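Entry 12.
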Amino acid sequence: MNNQNSERKSWGDYDSEDDVLRTPLRQEVKERHCKNESKDEHICIDIDSCKMFILPNVFTPNGDGINDMFVPVASDYVDNLDIQIFNRWGNLVFHTSDKQINWDGRDMNTKLDCPEGVYFYVCEIFEAKLNGTAKRRLIGYIQILR
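Predicted 3D structure (tokens):
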């Protein structure tokens, strides 16, 4: 791996392997790939301190095959979830317990396409943590562009 872009990372000096095991590592590390690409990747050292479930803020359910479904960007270590999506008048337009959400932008009651606009979600996720499963509530917005 002799590359001009490669970086050497040092985690500290330890007297023995036991010191490494007892030292808490609670950080997210940014790693530069040493290929002919400039792709950054986040590596989680401790699942209790890293965001393992990320939702996008926009999707485009227009049938072109690109971003047609509202799905998590990352969903590592999620045991299960419950998400409710509301329109701007507070009406429930979508609800699921599917970890991948897979909302196609249609109203679950009428089966019609929801109009372009901003929708509000409440998502309860249950994530695997070092001490078992933990519940976390995410509240946010998703925009539909067609």
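Annotation: The mean pLDDT is 77. The helical segments are 17-22.
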